[in-house]
């Protein structure tokens, strides 16, 4: 036996130290002790009857959160990006036409994913902070005749809550599947998968749900399943193949489950707990709370002289500011990075800069799930006020 | 606002109940409290300096476990199957020739993954429980001239520990990358990535490491990186694209890290802790312990009249029985499913049946990481003895 050429690393002799921060960026959000503790339960097998029961509870919780009766509802063993690939890999075949609404980073990423697997991709672009009208969308659907239309409901890079009403119906008029990314929005603002005729909907565990990142709820309509299960080619990923996932999650009609992959069982525990918390509060109460807190926050920002990046503020039901992630125009004359660091250092509070098209233009504050409270708003406003007082300001 | 059509599910009103089992199947294995507790630390951002330090510690821990100096060493945000796809997606382009050694389920799955992305796949097959000689392998390399050769080091479906010596050198003689699956073996038996000239090596967190499933260590040699970073086409997966992962893990030379995906931070905590445990014990001690316990277990099984599925038992260094997962020939005249259920019900102890080519032929017992002890062997032997006394035996 040869001797070891790599010695045990010294850095691992130090104990793990994890600080507590107020996680008020666009995600992950804070995880309450109840959910963290759920995840610290003992590991059981990924094919035990007990885990199948937990997965079945998760499925019911997702159906509630998504407001869907879809049998094909499950959680992908990965983060939001895995769900995004799961949606695209299963519904798109090489040569299919895909249309992506781009009004921030998520549309760009969906377009890139579809391109990588050989789809013909077209985009319709809204300016950062803006959104598309149903007329824009119908024009593009009629021109490109896509098999799939992607739209981010909560565009966390720009702070836009995209209106959804009527788009599913338009897609179906043009024989197109409607794929919606609700990672940053769901649970914090109304969404009705079935009534809004959304064909594929996914989210992540680490936003409004307040679970650790690592699982991603997803659901497929009957119409989406028709396409998925009548493909000519196999999806590029075995791991994300819905035929296998459906069986593992008991969503098909087969009498037994076949080993596919080792599900992240402890992440399933915390996901189940986070869905239980949401069910206890009730979706409508959660929506109402996020909206009330967001209005309080936005009013507070404006009374400090700060500007919101998403200009239009129409009354319900066409609210276009995300109640979960707020984009604030980067205060004139300041270095936004300095503000972020100052607030983290002085107030132990994470807020974030822009992402993709909003880099340099905005500060982003996420108040999601348990973090959405007036007390937290007061904390953020005080931190911002303090930062504007103490950070460097150019004399321009 | 329409009203809710799906009410809060009643099943989520019941508290989460997770039983404790002795996890002596082929994985996941039991997670000691120290590692579970690490995973229950507060969530911090996936781009915080603190998480980058934890990721850097993980990288060092993997380099130690793998015995490699590879800069391109990281953990994929997913289970072993994700790492398998990460390895194949990044190193294989459509039309590339891939050779997979099939002596159980893992080779079949690697072949399927490569086929899905358009590779020309050939296999060399060893009978279940057997293994391939270097002469077999060289013949196949010379015939098929693959760009990548896949081999499972620990074939957990059959219980074979495949010899590795000399294969890396053969691959390189034929200008082929050597990809090794060490999910079930690493940490429990000697493996030297650099000295054995392995180009891509991966494992999972839930076996010898005793962390919850959900992260998968992986490493790429300089030679593998040459191929990955000089591809003509983009890998099919954005999420698993090594260009992005390398940057997120600080393995490239870029000064800043760009947001790719939200890493499962709490799973990183427990992975780090599990690597610290391994470094504390020391690799050589861990190998020695697994081997001693396996020999004690195998002797105990044979003294009960049970037979081991892997026939050949040659002395080191060509040991071909996995010390981590033992395959026992299904006892003649019994229903293997009844034995499994009896042992779970009566002794609260998970053992498993066969998988893929070994279904119906074997019982599988995994004793990995903290589970590898003589006390646990005694527990398993007593349970088996009891099961053989009480389960139904046909009169044939």
CATH topology annotation of the largest domain in chain A: Aspartate Aminotransferase, domain 2
CATH classification, class level of the largest domain in chain A: Alpha Beta
Report the mean per-residue pLDDT of chain A as an integer. Answer: 96
What sequence of helices (H) and strands (E) makes up the elements of chain A? EHHEHEHEHEEEHEEEHHHHEHEEEH
Helix proportion of chain A? 25-40%
Oligomeric state, counting identical vs distinct chains: homodimer
Counted beta strands of chain A: 14
How large a portion of the residues of chain A is in β-strands, by DSSP E? 5-15%
CATH architecture of the largest domain in chain A: 3-Layer(aba) Sandwich
Question: Helical region count of chain A?
Answer: 12
CATH superfamily of the largest domain in chain A: Type I PLP-dependent aspartate aminotransferase-like (Major domain)
Shape of chain A: globular
Helix- and strand-based class of chain A?
alpha/beta
Enzyme class (chains A, B): transferase
EC number (chains A, B): 2.6.1.44, 2.6.1.51
GO biological process, one term (chains A, B): glycine biosynthetic process, by transamination of glyoxylate
Protein name (chains A, B): Alanine--glyoxylate aminotransferase
